[in-house]
Design a protein that fits this description.
This protein is an alpha/beta fold. It has two domains: 6-127, no CATH class; 141-207, no CATH class. The chain is 31% helix and 16% strand. The protein has seven helices and eight strands. It has helices at residues 28-40, 62-69, 87-99, 108-116, 141-144, 167-178, 197-202; strands at 6-7, 23-24, 46-50, 74-78, 102-105, 125-127, 153-158, 184-189. The chain has a four-stranded parallel sheet. A two-stranded parallel sheet has the order 1-2. Helix 1 runs parallel beside helix 2 and helix 2 runs parallel beside helix 3 (87-99). It is globular and about 60 Å long. The two termini are 37 Å apart.
């Protein structure tokens, strides 16, 4: 098994040995060469992780040049399925679906959107629920001491940040409503969505 990440900087990143090729995000030729590389190495199957903002081109269209050149089956995991895609997003996603042998989504709603909006046959879609294992409940105070938040109410969120998730509203509400009656502590274990670079730069306070 090998991995082909996408580099969004000219200098790239210090990847481990199993990364034998990296895509230059905005370089169309890089995607075409990656397809040649995968074909030459007789890869059995490609598992594409799709998220908006990762791939270059209008609506991430550069990835289509890689998919069109592949000679092996493609299984695409869709991390976001838009309910109201713009025309470019609609066109790109429809072709990704066409070029993929299977599509994996993480919710029933995503499967519904694929079928109703992008006209993907339900027989082509598999759902792997997004979530965590069902673990036994433990007294949270056991862990609060370890992280220095003993005696506080802890608000925890995870997942990628973007402007439409309401975290600023949550923090404003917590500070204005909850502070008079309890001492709270917020923890955000996350990074920003790939396509939120401008928002990330202007709103670093979301991450603190």
């Amino acid at each position: 098994m090998l991995a082909l990440p996408v580099s969004d900087t000219q200098q790239g990143y210090d990847y481990p040995a199993r990364v034998r090729w990296s895509l230059a995000q905005d370089d169309l030729q890089s995607y075409q060469e990656a397809a040649d590389f995968l074909n030459f190495n007789n890869i059995d199957m490609v598992c594409l992780q799709h998220e908006y903002g990762i791939f270059g081109g209008v609506a991430g269209s550069h990835i289509l040049h890689l998919l069109r050149g592949l000679k092996m089956p493609v299984v695409t995991t869709l991390h976001t399925v838009l309910r109201e895609p713009d025309p470019n997003q609609l066109t790109v996603m429809e072709e990704i679906a066409e070029l993929s042998d299977r599509l994996i989504v993480m919710s029933q709603l995503s499967s519904q959107f694929l079928q109703e909006i992008f006209k993907v046959p339900g027989s082509k879609i598999d759902m792997v629920p997004h979530g965590v294992p069902d673990l036994p409940f433990l007294d949270p105070n056991f862990y609060k001491d370890r992280f220095g938040v003993e005696g506080k109410a802890v608000l925890l969120t995870f997942g990628l940040l973007s402007p439409n998730k309401g975290l600023n509203t949550r923090m404003l509400f917590t500070s204005s409503r909850a502070r008079p009656i309890l001492t709270s502590s917020g923890a955000t274990v996350t990074s920003t969505e790939p396509d939120c670079k401008l928002w990330r730069t202007k709103s670093e306070w979301h991450r603190k």
